[in-house]
Amino acid sequence: MNNHRDNKNYRDRNENPGFSDPFFLEGASFNLEELLSFCRQAVNDKNMPEWKLDVLAFMNLFLDPATGEIEQQTSGTTGNPKKFVLNRGSMIRSAAKTNQYFGLKPGDPVLLCLPIRYIAGKMMVVRALLGGLNLRLAEPSSRPLKAFSTGALKFGAMVPLQVHESLKNGDDLSVMDQLLIGGGEIHPALKDKLIENERPVVFESFATTETYTHFALKRINGKQPDIDFRLLDGVSIARDKNGCLEVVVKGITEGRVITSDFVEVSSDGKGFRWLGRRDNVINSGGIKIIPEVLEQIIREVLGQDCLVLPQNDARLGESLVLVVETREKSPPLDRWLQLLREKLSRFEIPARIIPVERIPRNTSFKPDRGEAFKLL
Q1: Cα 71 to chain centroid, rounded
Q2: CB 84 within 8 Å of CB 209
Q3: Neighbouring residues of 308: CB distance < 8 A, sequence distance ≥ 6
Q4: φ and ψ at residue 341, rounded to 5 degrees
Q5: What is the pLDDT of residues 119-146, one digit of tens each?
Q6: DSSP secondary-structure letter at 114?
Q7: Domain 281-375: what homologous superfamily?
Q8: The whole model's pTM is what?
């Protein structure tokens, strides 16, 4: 193991995807043999936290194909969650695209603060291995930047809840040059806070497991923010007969990936606006309502995070229930209802409003609609 950067193998490895020394982890550099040895020996380190052991175990698995296949649970974007065997070549090509898009060079420090069990966490590791990036590790938590009050990071990826909690607690996002936010919709209030700052440059991502993370990005701050998600090079999209997104990523996907996401394709065909998920549609009296679209409007009206859920209704089949996240002990439900009646159609007015201190979220920090049904 050595700690110098003047290695003869230093070059832009993203132009010609393949692995070469050195590999960087937490500021230390390794050749391939040293890195594999370090990962394998870590299993016996009783002082190393489990989340970090998981990262090193994946490194070993990825770099040594003889150790087995890489299995991944899909997120459900393309249907019911299922086991998916990841192709190492596709992972490498996807990582190369990202490194090139964000201008990442050997030695650049990048942050991994997402659980390694998800594709987003795995791909951050592959980007670092491929590009010779200095992979910095932080425990996956709601405030991963607590340990980075000083120093600089060229790139990092977080979910919306992590960004929200970091800003709320005064953690400094500007330690990063570029921030990729994925795994859930960005709340309008959070987006407004990010727009106010020039640093980091913030991108919202659109991704599936089958496309090996993001295939479209939306810049949300700076002088030229994007209105829609914009496709990366080599990506083509269409809509199926139900209005759901179909995507092909050249050299990465095996044919078309059919999602359950309703989208509106941009006029130039090079982007799209996300509307919601087909499996969440609520049929109320024959009117089909996309809850995600309605939630976005309600957030802007009430200034509160929320979920729109269906409940059985003898007359309509399904009616709407609005779950609102608030810390008020006696929230103004009548006032909220009045504001909603001024903004929404009669078909979109909730039959009842349920205030909660926290909306249930899953392990990837996304709103958990299934768990939220228990509140009804």
Answers
A1: 19
A2: yes
A3: 282, 289, 291, 294, 295, 298, 320, 321, 322, 323, 350
A4: -65, -30
A5: 999 999 999 999 999 999 999 998 999 8
A6: S
A7: ANL, C-terminal domain (3.30.300.30)
A8: 0.82
